[in-house]
Amino acid sequence: MFKNKAKILGLAVLTSTVVLSGCGLFGSETQKKIDPPKTVTTTSEKNTNKETAAVKKEKAENAMKTELYLIDKNGYVVPQTLNLPKTKSVAKQALDYLVVNGPVTDMLPNDFRAVLPEDTKPSVNIKDGVAVVDFSKEFKNYQPEDELKILQSVTWTLTQFAGVNSVKLKMNGHELTEMPVKGTPISEKLSRATGINLDTKDVVDITNTKPITVYFIGGEEGSYYYVPVTRRVKASEKDPITAAVNELIKGPSEKSNLVSQFMSDVKLNEAPKYQDGTVTLNFNKNIYGSFEEKVISQNLLDTLVLSLTEQKGVEKVAVLVDGKAELKNDKGKKLSAPVTRPEKVNTGSF
């Protein structure tokens, strides 16, 4: 059951990765009809089917999955993985697809909108891990309330690509030290450390804190997706893994539209163990989505893995319950190996 939302997630499946998946929306058995009429396929229909399959194959071969950080109806900046045409200029293309009324228009998921002002033309130059983006003058034509969202979207969209660690912004060839509408200061190099969907409501003194990004669940039944949220934790917190787990257990703000499958009585039995890129977490039995069947929700696992692999050096997450490793998810799949982060996030609704 989701925390902070009186909804039960029906037919919840992992859509952001093939790891630990393999179960469809429906079971493998279907109801059989008695003596169903035989279907006769003509030669013309067979040729049409072949052509359709060939077109689909060609489209798949000429496409590449790309995360675009778009704005949902609640104002969150959310990664949505779309199939874009293959190109050598992946960074520029991603920005082109962030422009309002640009090539992304017919591909936008329901209740999502593009980020950059209409007719904005970006150029990108990547060197030494820094993507220098130069926007045309149309870049300044955005609504004031979108200023931070634009910064976050551009930064997180570009840093998905290998070789891009940070972003620098220009407009008409001139370096931007602040955003052109509300004047939000821009650091010399923007990175994911800047955060996304900032939640600072309980922070009194931000100078004594540091950022932790965790993932909650947004959307509505039938079209849920994962939303990154950056919280602030005490600067004295030495273990970012425990801090991230605690934020997941704490759950999203009650005033937000986000939900979580972590219940408040979930606890770690011991400190996380880290070795060679793998974090091992030993939870109490309250991590189970069902005590009777002793299964762990796949959506809970997804938010856990997405959150922890945001930490530098973490590549996989292994989960134990009261020290035992023989677990399974709510699709009946055994969790026999540590879980890796999906290559792309939010490839579809769940």
Explain what this protein looks like in three dimensions:
It is a single chain. With 350 residues, the chain is an alpha+beta fold. The protein has a domain at 60-192. Helices cover 17% and strands 24% of the residues. The chain contains 5 helices and 14 strands. The chain has a 4-stranded mixed beta sheet with strand order 4-5-6-7. α4 (240-250) packs antiparallel against α5 (298-308). The longest helix has 19 residues, at 43-61. The protein is globular, with a radius of gyration of 22 Å.
Summarize the structure.
With 350 residues, the protein is α+β, with helices and mostly antiparallel strands.
What is the secondary structure topology, with strand pairs?
Layout: H1 43-61, E1 63-72, E2 77-85, H2 90-96, E3 112-113, E4 122-127, E5 130-135, H3 147-158, E6 166-171, E7 174-175, E8 198-199, E9 209-220, E10 223-234, H4 240-250, E11 273-275, E12 278-283, H5 298-308, E13 316-321, E14 339-340
Parallel strand pairs: 5-6, 8-10, 12-13
Antiparallel strand pairs: 1-2, 1-3, 4-5, 6-7, 9-10, 11-12, 13-14
Signal peptide: 1-21
Domain GerMN: 91-180, 241-330
Protein name: GerMN domain-containing protein
